[in-house]
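Q: Hi! First time doing this. I have a protein sequence and I read that you can turn it into a structure. Is that right? Here it is:
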Amino acid sequence: MPIEIICLEEPAFYVLIEKVYARLIPADSVERNRWVTPGEAMSMLNIKSKTSLQSLRDNGKIRFSQPQKRVILYDRISIEEYLDKNAKNTF
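A: Yes, that's right. Below is the predicted 3D structure, encoded as structure tokens:
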């Protein structure tokens, strides 16, 4: 298969880059929900036990909200802060 080379003048190159950037911005700027379900929280924390998740909640390690009696949501930011706080630096 022959290699094709595309040559662009500098102004055309920058116009192309701006168009590509403009198309990528909406995909990057998708706002994530602040409050996540227990399943999402467990996935973020890489745990499989609901008991472990409840322990983190009960010990005040991560924030949660209970808008209804049987609905518990977890604060994404507090989960990320918990993970950052427990991260170990490499040597």
